[in-house]
Write a structure and sequence with these properties.
Elements lengths: L7 H19 L15 H7 L7 E8 L14 H14 L6 E7 L3 E9 L21 H12 L6 E8 L16 H13 L4 E8 L6 H6 L6 E2 L7 H21 L7 E7 L13 E6 L3 E13 L6 E9 L7 E3 L6 E3 L4 E12 L2 E2 L4 E16 L3 H5 L13 E14 L4 H23 L6 E6 L5 E5 L4 E8 L2 E10 L6 E8 L9 E8 L3 E4 L2 E6 L3
Parallel strand pairs: 1-2, 1-4, 4-5, 5-6, 8-16, 14-16
Antiparallel strand pairs: 2-3, 7-9, 9-13, 10-12, 10-15, 11-13, 15-16, 17-18, 17-24, 19-20, 20-21, 21-22, 23-24
Helix pairs in contact: 3-7, 4-5
């Protein structure tokens, strides 16, 4: 379907709407201008890549069947138009390109075998003077093109099929699409494309040529240009531009995954290297307080063709004391392919004593990590106009420096006061528990030898009575405490009685005696009397 081009007013209105929408979304957080360098045009990239020095192979297939003598709107025959436009096309190829020119009708002829483009500029004169063939066999022409490309080593190859008709070759092995010959030819082209880019360009000079089907039988993605002999010059230039784009994409594959390499060395001695996962080890000794150390950071582009935009960041690495750095550029820097930049960084940190229960020596360790975020102003153009959406640069690179030494381990100033409070608190808690468990004693403890009736009286005070007693023939060790719930006290009595006879065992017993009452333990009478 053909649609009319939008008016200038509609274009300006659409552009204004897009700008307003972008402003609403970006707002104050829009990237700074220095973060968004202008994306180069495809032509700029091709010049930077020296694409004209990268060879490409062109095989031009020209239909010489009699229908090519039909005249176009300008009165010239299609065949004369093809020859005229081909002269201009061949003259505009790069000196490094290679060209083959093949004519086809009922038979196929190699007018100019594949060779330098400079030697093929007059090859059009070797085409037949008139198009008089009574058949058209593009399959055999494509087979001849494969023969020409077989020994070519260029990274990009283009087969240009110029025809005004469909297949008309009843005696050919390629008379019908889908035949075994066509399948075999497709396999040949797939083999050719294993180590290079092979593209088929269809330049139909009339309607109903089925060029797309013909080329699609041998190449995966044929490129079919607009129909018509009058636009042939534009079509050929378009094919040439697309080949240049393919050369650029093949060249840019060298830089897929490219980025920067970071390395750190000791700024004083220049020795040691911290690259990737390997850290630069620097000893810091045992000096305390504010410290500094100089290191040298080298940033090297690993790209072969693409200029890189690098933004460097530094942060403390690990759980150690904070490390800051002075010397990194604040803005993003541009690195040309293979270029390097060197920066002298001053690392700043504090090496203070660490807390310890007792004076000692403690290990000190911290570090700094420098990372690089890599972008390129080429990326939007490579993804868009050049049609290489899979192009990606490397993930951020990192280099590390590890600082290690010794610091004294010192008790914090608050430690001893806290320990004193804890000890005093423990003593107070123990004393309080002791008082709660052992009630105050009062009154008199009467101890009686039940055999003789002799007795002794011992006053009770404090919270513990412990004494060796003798009553007549009785000798015993007696301990008495006040126990019981609040408001009710009983005497907890423990008795160890010495044996009366030799070789007899000691008697050990314990029990309770209520206030004002009596009990018997170890054959001894215990009674309590109140002082009131």
């Amino acid at each position: 379907m053909i649609t009319s081009a939008p008016s200038a007013l509609r274009v300006r209105a659409s552009a204004t709407a897009l700008l307003l929408t972008a402003a609403m979304f970006l707002g104050a957080s829009a990237p700074r201008a220095d973060d968004l360098p202008a994306a180069p045009s495809p032509a700029d990239i091709c010049r930077s890549l020296h694409i004209d020095d990268v060879p490409a192979s062109y095989v031009v297939l020209v239909d010489t069947s009699s229908s090519m003598e039909d005249r176009g709107p300008d009165g010239a025959t299609q065949y004369d138009t093809v020859r005229k436009r081909l002269r201009t096309f061949l003259a505009g190829l790069a000196p490094s390109d290679q060209v083959a020119l093949v004519s086809f009708g009922r038979s196929v002829g190699v007018v100019h075998p594949l060779g330098p483009a400079a030697g093929a500029r007059d090859a059009v004169d070797d085409l037949p003077a008139r198009a008089t063939e009574t058949a058209s066999d593009p399959g055999s022409a494509l087979e001849t093109a494969a023969d020409q490309l077989r020994d070519s080593r260029t990274p990009v190859a283009a087969v240009l099929l110029l025809t005004d008709g469909a297949i008309n070759a009843p005696d050919s092995a390629y008379a019908k699409l889908g035949s075994p010959s066509w399948r075999k030819l497709g396999e040949r082209y797939r083999a050719l494309g294993e180590d290079r880019t092979v593209v088929g360009y269809g330049l139909p000079l009339a309607d109903d040529t089925h060029v797309s089907d013909i080329l699609g039988a041998v190449v995966a993605t044929p490129r079919i240009l607009p129909v018509g002999a009058t636009a042939l010059g534009t079509q050929l230039n378009s094919a040439k531009d697309r080949v240049r784009t393919d050369k650029a994409v093949r060249t840019l594959r060298d830089d897929a995954g490219a980025g920067v390499r970071l390395s750190l060395t000791d700024g004083a001695s220049g020795t040691g290297t911290g690259t990737g996962s390997d850290a630069l080890d620097l000893g810091t000794g045992d000096r305390e307080g504010a410290r500094r150390q100089t290191v040298r950071l080298t940033v090297t582009s690993t790209a072969h063709h693409v200029p890189l935009r690098v933004r460097l960041h530094a942060r403390t690495d690990g759980d150690g004391p904070s490390v800051t750095s002075v010397g990194l550029p604040e803005e993003a820097v541009t690195l040309e392919p293979g270029a390097r930049r060197t920066y002298h960084l001053t690392l700043l940190w504090r090496q203070d004593p660490r807390p310890a229960l007792a004076p000692s020596t403690k290990p000190f360790e911290t570090g700094l990590a420098v990372s690089a975020e890599v972008t390129s102003s080429w990326t939007p153009t490579v993804h868009g106009a050049l049609g290489y959406p899979g192009f990606r640069l490397a993930a951020p690179a990192t280099a590390r420096v590890r600082l290690h030494g010794e610091v004294p381990g010192e008790p914090p100033v608050w430690l001893y006061p806290v320990l004193l409070v804890l000890v005093l608190g423990g003593v107070l808690a123990g004393w309080t528990a002791y008082r709660r468990r052992n009630h105050p004693l009062s009154g008199t403890l009467v101890i009686t030898d039940l055999r003789s009736g002799d007795r002794v009286h011992h006053p009770l005070d404090g919270r513990l009575f412990a004494k060796d007693v003798e009553v007549a023939q009785v000798r015993a060790r007696v301990r008495v405490r006040g126990r019981g719930p609040a408001g009710r006290t009983v005497l907890a009595v423990e008795c160890v009685r010495e044996p009366v006879r030799a070789n007899a065992p000691r008697l050990v017993d314990s029990g309770e005696c209520e206030l004002g009452k009596s009990t018997v333990l170890c054959g001894i009478g215990f009674s309590h009397t109140s002082d009131r």
